[in-house]
Amino acid sequence: MRRRSFSGGRLLVALAFAAFALFSYFGSKEFNPVTQEDQYVGITPEQEIALGLQAAPEMAAQFGGAHPDPQAQAFIDEVCGRLIQRSDAGQADWPYECTLLVDDETVNAFALPGGQVFLTVGLYNLLQSEGQLAGVLGHEIGHAVARHSAQQIARQQLTQGLTGAVIIASYDPENPNSVATGQMAAVIGQLLGMRYSREHELQADRLGVRFLAQAGYDPRALIGVMNILAEANSGSAPPEFFSTHPNPENRISEIEEAIRQEFPGGVPEGLIE
User: Fold this and answer.
1) Which is nearest to 189 in space by CA: 220, 212, 165, 211?
2) Count of domains forming the chain
3) Is residue 137 classed exposed, middle or buried when 0-12, 13-18 and 19+ CB atoms within 10 A define those classes?
4) In terms of C-beta density within 10 A (0-12 exposed, 13-18 middle, 19 or more buried), how is residue 253 classed?
5) Residues of the chain with pLDDT under 70
6) Could you read off the pLDDT of 180-216 as tens digits, one per residue?
7) Which domain, by its residues, includes 256?
8) 141/119 Cα distance (integer angstroms)
9) Domain assignment present for 269
């Protein structure tokens, strides 16, 4: 009788965990006017901005800090400003800032919540044109505009809540196999998080194409960026499914399709390459 009562109480607690996680997630829906979609976000825009500004110094320090070259930074500021002022990215009221980092060995770019964008000089030195720089920045700005960080936080909160419910419901102190069930639930949650990150990368590519085209850049420059990244990562890239960033080769077809949708009659002449 005591064992049955313990199991029943554990199940009620697990159901409460799951219900709270689901209620919190589906209660966080907001409409994004740029992406034209409903999103489930875990924090407010004000919290996103505060989080990004707070994390920016530490993240920059991990890559050697801001690069001291004023001309390179001024060029990045110019391209970043053009993208924001002449595209739908400007509809998002973020305190955008694009910063070049000292690290010349790492080929990387990333965005923090609220519009803080960074790229390493290791990637900057590989870029061959203004259009390619705009492609990198446009992609990262796309992450900020689409509020991917806020979405990821909401999904992590949901996953953690449901995983906790599974662990509580399946745990049996007299059955060692119940621990394995909880561990499997955690692994599945991690894989789901990776999948969402991959989807975000592809959406950021599509938004990057749109922002480039609206700002007067040739969006095909983003394909050039993918080729550069593919070459830089050759021989060291993990299996594509288990990577939060899809392989560059697999992103090119998505970018080409986005370009066809943006310019059904073909890319016009006179755009900045």
Assistant:
1) 165
2) 1
3) buried
4) exposed
5) 1-28, 158, 161-196, 235-245
6) 444 444 444 444 444 547 889 999 999 999 999 999 9
7) 2-262
8) 12
9) no
